[in-house]
């Protein structure tokens, strides 16, 4: 495991002692944890750098050291032009376009490239490693653009924008968010711009770091959102007078899917000791044979998504242990070309997660819709409106959820099957993993909003079941929503701010915490 220790100022993640853990990446990328490079790592880096410098003096060409790149790999570069070669590589490849990429994604990108540099398999000088670590600690975030990576030969354009900033060129955001020239930010942090030497330009841009960083952030967020989905489903089951009998452990054991069992256990916990559920257990009170699929099959759908996240976590853990570069310095001192920069392993699971996200949102929206339909809600007023006809209640909140779900279905179309050749057909098959990661981030935001609309709806429905009271867990979520300034049933009011407030509770993990009673990490 990687080394993490606490200082009075902040959490510190030590790079190079062992592979990073997913939580290390989240800590640095999202929460600003500091990094340190292990001394033994810098020693490895210095040793392999000596090998590269020996090859630089060799009259025989070596890719990335004394040759051009990609389709120009057969072009020999004289020693006096190699500094220009490395700088030209970064400048030409820093060709991203579109909106700025989020700060947490760029920080994850830098951190993961730093980890690979610190393995000693890339052949860079120690100063390169130290500069990347210092940029993270100074809060310098290079401007990276949305479009430019094909997810093969690494996330070339995004990583080039980072390398360009390390050279003192281009623009960055400071720790306070100000947009400044990279040279000014480096100077303010007492850092000298890098002058890249043989092999270093390639080493800085040949990695799956962007797509991997977004995958790790997605896994972190989805782990919490799937707990939230269980909480929201429990509230809907309770509010719609559904049964918890179908979530019994012995029934789940008949189909030994791990994720399903975990979600069913959450639903049992959420519905435990509910007066509303208890009110209709007697068959003489409730004559319905079984609930609709969106209620009854919640553990099966949420559980399948959990298993998908677990598979993605396995792939991400393997990628975290990788040293992705081309060429790479092997343990026995060879400088060897390879194809490890191809993003297929990461791209596939990013696409797989987008499918799971769309389906979890889809079943959530169906539960919301049932609560608003008097033909299916078991006694609730149409659209949960105060005065039916005069008030529309939550009618259009469901429209919003439906619109998001429709978009999530489009975002579930895989990017990884859509290879486009590049570099004069030298790079003739690419992963599109960066694109898969970008659409997954949008999908996760959509899922959080669909779940928020279900929580908002179920909270109002629970209030409308008075004098019956919700259970301790669902009641805690209802109280959380009310405590955020979202009022209960009543005449129509401006609904959008309330939807945003509940979405913020969902994204923060507060709904999952309130419903399941333990902290999220």
From TrEMBL:
Q: Which organism is it from?
A: Microbacterium salsuginis
- Predominant location of this chain? cytoplasm
Q: Does the keyword Lyase apply?
A: yes
Write out the similarity annotation: Belongs to the PAL/histidase family.
Q: Where does it live in the cell?
A: Cytoplasm
This protein is called: Histidine ammonia-lyase
Gene Ontology MF terms: histidine ammonia-lyase activity
Return the EC number. 4.3.1.3
Q: Which UniProt keywords apply?
A: Histidine metabolism, Lyase
Coiled-coil segments, which residues? none
For this UniProt entry, which residues form the secretion signal? none
Pathway of this protein?
Amino-acid degradation; L-histidine degradation into L-glutamate; N-formimidoyl-L-glutamate from L-histidine: step 1/3
Q: Which reaction does this chain catalyze?
A: L-histidine = trans-urocanate + NH4(+)
InterPro entries for this protein? Aromatic_Lyase (IPR001106), Fumarase/histidase_N (IPR024083), HutH (IPR005921), L-Aspartase-like (IPR008948), Phe/His_NH3-lyase_AS (IPR022313)
């Amino acid at each position: 495991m990687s080394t993490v220790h606490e200082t009075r100022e902040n959490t510190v993640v030590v790079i190079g002692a062992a592979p990073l853990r997913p939580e290390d990446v989240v800590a640095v990328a999202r929460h600003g944890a500091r990094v340190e490079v292990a001394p033994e790592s810098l020693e490895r880096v210095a040793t392999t750098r000596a090998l590269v410098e020996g090859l630089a003096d060799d009259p025989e060409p070596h890719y990335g050291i004394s040759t051009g790149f990609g389709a120009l790999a057969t072009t020999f570069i004289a020693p006096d032009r190699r500094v220009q070669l490395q700088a030209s590589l970064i400048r030409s490849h820093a060709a991203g376009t579109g909106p700025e990429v989020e700060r947490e994604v760029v920080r994850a990108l830098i951190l993961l490239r730093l980890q690979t540099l610190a393995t000693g398999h890339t052949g860079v000088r120690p100063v390169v490693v130290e500069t990347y670590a210092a940029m993270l600690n100074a809060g310098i975030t290079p401007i990276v653009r949305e479009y430019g990576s094909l997810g093969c030969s690494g996330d070339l354009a995004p990583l080039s924008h980072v390398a360009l900033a390390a050279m003192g060129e281009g623009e960055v955001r400071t720790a306070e968010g100000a947009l400044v020239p990279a040279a000014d930010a480096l100077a303010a942090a007492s850092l000298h711009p890098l002058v890249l030497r043989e092999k270093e330009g390639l080493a800085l841009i040949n990695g799956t770091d962007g797509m991997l960083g977004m995958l790790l952030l997605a896994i972190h967020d989805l782990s919490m959102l799937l707990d939230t989905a269980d909480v929201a489903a429990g509230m809907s089951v309770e509010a719609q007078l559904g049964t918890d009998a179908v979530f019994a452990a012995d029934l789940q054991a008949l189909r030994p899917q791990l994720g399903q069992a975990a979600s069913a256990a959450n639903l049992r916990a959420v519905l435990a000791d509910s007066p509303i559920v208890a009110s209709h257990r007697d068959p003489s009170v409730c004559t319905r044979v079984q609930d609709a699929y969106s209620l009854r099959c919640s553990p099966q759908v949420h559980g399948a998504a959990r298993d998908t996240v677990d598979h993605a976590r396995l792939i991400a853990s393997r990628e975290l242990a990788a040293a992705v570069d081309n060429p790479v310095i092997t343990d026995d001192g060879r400088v060897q070309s390879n194809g490890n920069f191809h993003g297929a392993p990461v791209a596939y699971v990013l696409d797989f997660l987008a499918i799971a996200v769309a389906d979890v949102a889809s079943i959530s929206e169906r539960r919301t819709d049932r609560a608003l339909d008097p033909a299916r809600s078991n006694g609730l007023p149409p659209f949960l409106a105060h005065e039916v006809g005069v008030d529309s209640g939550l009618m259009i909140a469901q429209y919003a959820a439906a619109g998001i779900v429709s978009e999530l279905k489009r975002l579930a179309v895989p990017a990884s099957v859509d290879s486009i050749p590049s570099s004069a057909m030298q790079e003739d098959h690419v992963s599109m993993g960066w694109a898969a990661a970008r659409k997954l981030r949008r999908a996760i935001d959509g899922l959080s909003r669909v779940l928020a609309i279900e929580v908002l709806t179920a909270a109002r429905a629970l209030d409308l079941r008075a004098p019956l009271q919700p259970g301790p867990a669902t009641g805690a979520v209802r109280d959380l929503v009310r405590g955020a300034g979202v009022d209960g049933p009543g005449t129509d009011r401006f609904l959008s701010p309330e939807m945003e407030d509940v979405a913020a509770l969902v994204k923060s993990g507060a709904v999952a915490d309130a419903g399941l009673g333990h902290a999220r990490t």
